[in-house]
C-alpha cells in the first residue's frame, strides 16, 4: 500500500491571458495566412491563462539554447527546493526519511540532474536513489507515481519524493509558423510540483492499489520533439486525438480487475489535461458524468497544459474537495510514445 | 533473485587510434600553449583506440546540434534493435516476455525515447513499462541494473531489457580548447549494449543479491554538462579523482553486509572505467590485487570510456572468462552527482 500525499504546486511569477497571447501572436505573425484559423483554435483550447517563467516580451525573441538553459537551471534550482520542502512536510516526514527522489522535466536539460541539487539542498540521505526522467513528456508525472509505487512496494519505509518541473515557455519557438506551433505556444504552461509518495498509509491521500502502463504501437509521430540548435521543438500530430479509444479499454480493465466496477462508477478521476478534446474523449469513451473531470478542466483553464505537473495540480484540487475515505479513483496521464500510465486506488482522509 | 544475462555489445564502424587522435588535435590546435601537456596526459589515459559513429574528419567540423541530433537518432534506431534482439535471445527469452525496457543514453536526446522505438521494432508487449534515463551519465548503466533489479524483485516474471547507447563523439566540441576538453575528446568512445535482467535464476549470469546507491554531497561540479546551442559540453573537475576514497567504504559495507567478507576477498569485479586513475584508486582504496580489474582496463584500452555502456562491456568480458558458479562479484559505476551505484552477487554458470 502506498499513499500519494498532498502535493505542493508552485507557479512562476509571470502570467499571460489567452487574449494577450493571441494579441502577441497577431503582432508577430499578423500576415500569416492561417492566423484567423489559429486564433479560433486557440480560443477553443479553453485555456484562459498561463504562468510563465519570463515575461512574454522576453520570450518572443529567442535568446538561444545556451541562454535558455541557464535560465532553466536558475529557475529550476530556485523553485524545486521550496516546493519539495513543503511536500515533505505535507507527508509528515523529514528529509532524512526520503529514500528515492524522482525528477520529471522535459522542457530543459541538466546533468547532473536536479535530483543531485535536491539531495544537496534538502540534505536527503547519501543513499537516496536518484531517478531523473526527461523523455516521457506529459506522461512523466504519472510514470513517476507508478515507479514510486513499485519502489514503495519493496519496503514500507521506501518513501519517494517526486518533483515535476516544466518551463514549457523556454521551448517556445517564435519562428515556428506551422499551425500546431501556434496552438502549442498558447496551450502549454509553466509550473513546478512536489509530492511525496509514502510507502504506507499513515497519511491522508490517494492510496494506490494497482497500476498499469500502456503503449500504442506505431504512434511515435503523435507527440515528438525535434532537437535543434534552438532547443526542443514540439510537434503534434492530430491523430493523437483518436488515441483515447485505444487506451480506454485498458483503463476499464484495470478498474474492473481491481474494484470489479466500471470507470463510470468511480468517485473521482485525476486526469492529465492533454487539451479540451482529450478530456472530451475521456468523458465520451468511459461514459463519465461530465462534471467528474471538472478538476482537470479547471487546471487546464487556469494554468494551461503543464505537462508532467498536471496530475499533481489535479491531485491538489482533489485534496481541496475533501473526498470521503474509501472513495475510488482513477489517475491517468498520456504522453509521447504514445504512452499512458494509470493507477487506481482509494482515498484515505 | 535476478540475473544479469549475457550482454550484447556493438561498436560503430569507424575507429581511431590514440596516435591518430593526438595528430588530429595537433593539426587543429597546434599553437595551443598547453598542447604538449595535453599530449602527455592523453598518452597517460591508457586508451589505445576508440570507435566512432562518424569519421573523425566529419566530427572535426561541428555541423550543429540540429544535424548531430539527426545522426544520433538515425544511428540509435539502427544499432539498438540489433543489439536488443541478440540480448533477449541470450537470456533464452522472447520479446513477448519483456515487461520493462530501460534505455540509458546521455549523449543525445530523443522524445519519444528510444524505448518507444524498441517496443515497436521488437514488438514488445503493449504493457511494457518504459524507463528512459538520460541524466545519470556514466553511472546510468549500473543505475539501470539496480532499478531493473528492484522491478524484478516485485514479480519473478518481471524481465527487463536494458539498452545503453552512447555516441560520445556527437558531443565532441572541436572549438573547446580547455585542457580537460582535449582529454575528454580523447577519452570517451561510442558503443551500444543490450542486456536482459531476468527476474529469476533460470539462465547463466550474474545473480544480484543486493544493491546500493551513494551520493557525495556538494559535488555537482565534479562532472557536468553545459547545455548550449552546439549541444552538450562535458566538463570535468579533477577533484573527482578524490571521490573513490569516499565511496570505497560504502562498497565495503555492502559487500560485508551481504557476504560477510571484504571486497578484496571477492572473486571478480565489474567496474566502470572512469579512467586509469579511477581504476588505480579502486585498486588502492579497496586493497585489490591489480589483476582483478583487468577486464575494466582492457575495455578502457580498446574502446575508451564508453559511459553507461562500460559495465556491460566488462560484464561481457566476464562471461568470456567463464567464472565458477558461486564466485562472488561486485559491480560498480560512478557518474555525475557525484553518484555511485553498486551491486553484489554471485555467478551462476
TrEMBL record, chains A, B:
Residues 208-343 form the Chalcone/stilbene synthase C-terminal domain. Pfam families: Chal_sti_synt_C, Chal_sti_synt_N. Residues 16-199 form the Chalcone/stilbene synthase N-terminal domain. Keywords: Acyltransferase, Transferase. SUPFAM superfamilies: Thiolase-like. InterPro entries: Chalcone/stilbene_synt_C (IPR012328), Chalcone/stilbene_synt_N (IPR001099), Polyketide_synthase_type-III (IPR011141), Thiolase-like (IPR016039). Belongs to the thiolase-like superfamily. Chalcone/stilbene synthases family. PANTHER family: 1,3,6,8-TETRAHYDROXYNAPHTHALENE SYNTHASE, HYDROXYMETHYLGLUTARYL-COA SYNTHASE. This is Type III polyketide synthase PhlD. It comes from Chromobacterium sphagni.
Amino acid at each position: 500500500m502506498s499513499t500519494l500525499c498532498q502535493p505542493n504546486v508552485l507557479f512562476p511569477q509571470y502570467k499571460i491571458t489567452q487574449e494577450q497571447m493571441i494579441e502577441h501572436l497577431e503582432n508577430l505573425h499578423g500576415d500569416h495566412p492561417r492566423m484567423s484559423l489559429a486564433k479560433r483554435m486557440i480560443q477553443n483550447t479553453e485555456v484562459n491563462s498561463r504562468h510563465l517563467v519570463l515575461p512574454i516580451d522576453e520570450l518572443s525573441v529567442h535568446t538561444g539554447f545556451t541562454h535558455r538553459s541557464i535560465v532553466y537551471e536558475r529557475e529550476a534550482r530556485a523553485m524545486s527546493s521550496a516546493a519539495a520542502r513543503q511536500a515533505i512536510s505535507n507527508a509528515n516526514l523529514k528529509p532524512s526519511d526520503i529514500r528515492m527522489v524522482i525528477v520529471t522535466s522535459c522542457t530543459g536539460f541538466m546533468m547532473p540532474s536536479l535530483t543531485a541539487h535536491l539531495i544537496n539542498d534538502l540534505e536527503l540521505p547519501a543513499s537516496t536513489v536518484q531517478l531523473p526522467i526527461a523523455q516521457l513528456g506529459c506522461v512523466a508525472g504519472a510514470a513517476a507515481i507508478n515507479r514510486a509505487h513499485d519502489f514503495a512496494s519493496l519496503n514500507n519505509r521506501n518513501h519517494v519524493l517526486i518533483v515535476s518541473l516544466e518551463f514549457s515557455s523556454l521551448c517556445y519557438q517564435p519562428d515556428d509558423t506551422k499551425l500546431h506551433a501556434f496552438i502549442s505556444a498558447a496551450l502549454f504552461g509553466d509550473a513546478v510540483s512536489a509530492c511525496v509518495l509514502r510507502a504506507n498509509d499513515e497519511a491522508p491521500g490517494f492510496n494506490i492499489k494497482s497500476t498499469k502502463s500502456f503503449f500504442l504501437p506505431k504512434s511515435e509521430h503523435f507527440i515528438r520533439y525535434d532537437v535543434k540548435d534552438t532547443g526542443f521543438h514540439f510537434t503534434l500530430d492530430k491523430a493523437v486525438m483518436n488515441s483515447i479509444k485505444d487506451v480506454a479499454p485498458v483503463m476499464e480493465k484495470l478498474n474492473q480487475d481491481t474494484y470489479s466496477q466500471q470507470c463510470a462508477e468511480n468517485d473521482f478521476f485525476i486526469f492529465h489535461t492533454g487539451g479540451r478534446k482529450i478530456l472530451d474523449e475521456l468523458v465520451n469513451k468511459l461514459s463519465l458524468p461530465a462534471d467528474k473531470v471538472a478538476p482537470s478542466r479547471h487546471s487546464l483553464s487556469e494554468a494551461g497544459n503543464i505537462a508532467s505537473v498536471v496530475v499533481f495540480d489535479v491531485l491538489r484540487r482533489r485534496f481541496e474537495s475533501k473526498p470521503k475515505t474509501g472513495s475510488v479513483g482513477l489517475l491517468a496521464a498520456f504522453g509521447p510514445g504514445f504512452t499512458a500510465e494509470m493507477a487506481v486506488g482509494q482515498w484515505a482522509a
